[in-house]
Design brief:
Bound molecules: guanine, fe (iii) ion
CATH architecture of the largest domain: Alpha-Beta Barrel
Strand order of the largest sheet: 3-2-1-4-15-16-17
Number of helices: 13
Shape: globular
Strand content: 15-25%
CATH topology of the largest domain: TIM Barrel
CATH class of the largest domain: Alpha Beta
Helix content: 25-40%
Length: about 425
Amino acid sequence: MKIYKANIVYTQHPGSFDVLKGGCVAVEDGRVVGVASDASHFAVPDAEVVDYGDCLLIPAMNDMHVHASQYRNQGIAMDLELLPWLANYTFPEEAKFASLSYADSVYRRFVRDLWRFGTMRCVTFATTHYEGSRRLMQLFQEAGMGALVGKVSMDRNSRPELCESVADSVRHIEALAEEFGDPEGLVRPIVTPRFIPSCTPEMLRACGELARKYNLSVQSHLSENTDEIAFVRKLEPESRNYADAYLRYGLFGQQPTVMAHCVWPEDEELQLLKENGVMVAHCPTSNLNVSSGMAPVRTFLDKGIRVGLGSDISGGHDLSIFRMMAYAVQVSKMYGKYCGGAPFLTLPEVFWIATKSAGSFFGKVGSFEPGYEFDALVIDDSALNYDNYTIVQRIERFIYLGDDRYITHRYCRGVEIPEPKV
Ligand code: GUN
Ligand code: FE
């Protein structure tokens, strides 16, 4: 057993932070045994004690929607809405990933920077290319960080070099499912039809069948942008709505599913999200940058729809899930003002969304309750903590003012993760 001493902050419930000043987290076999105010509580006299002094110890971050393959475009090309943005900037960049050496160089930097910002688990899009997607999985494995990696499936409405046959897509995903076949593995493939406009009905059907056959999770985009939704309505006249189209192809909760955005959900889509246990990846910066709108996150919470946060690089420009929390609160404030008065999100709520709620997609991840995998960050906020701040004020200030320099140690599944090599 190992016992980590520090100021402990986590969220069992969305309403408030659980805080233990000068507390202990006991960890065995990568899992939390319990939290207590004193090490003697665990009655294991030979337990190794790691004392992080006055630092904060919090659950690590989960990024529920991020395009590894768009990392080079981070912070550029913010002048178009979604569909022309994809055609003019995103698809040309993703086409470069036909080169394994290009993929390797971008993906190395991506994995290292996720590490920097304390994101120990992510759900990510690679590209349609098999070799590059496999390399991204290898890099996460070498790093010891958790990732569900999507070799993207696309066979229409893109550049010819990004489109593939259904047979090739199936063959490549099967190869990855077999190579990364350990169901308990930290790195697993995730079935990734890009979105309805990118996939023929045959491709969508094949994706649903693959997910079931290999017991894989599913990710895609849902109801992000009004032009996109109008396009889907044309492409899928027999579906009742965008979510129903995924459902009909076996891609909406038949296997664990995360859908990015849901900025414009119809009532029936909200119902389908809830009934099928589909998680929404809320990506506030992306929704601002590509001018999609503001997602009704309070409605998701009220209806018991699962939610996590996503950076959505490079629609989003910021890889930090901490800053994503602040953006999520800010966007919810504007949503409340301009769209019907819903109460805005609080900081403990977005912390819970980013940790325990998002983490549930990976199993028992995102909390320090007994049985949870020990994914954790040590934060030395002494430079921000120059006055008599409470522990809650310190975590608030770190979220709003801090950055990767304040994160001194990172753990995933109980193992301290060193900086990955670029
Ligand atoms: N919808 C389909 N592809 C994408 C993408 O790459 N980014 C975003 N934000 N939305 C998408
Ligand atoms: Fe996206």
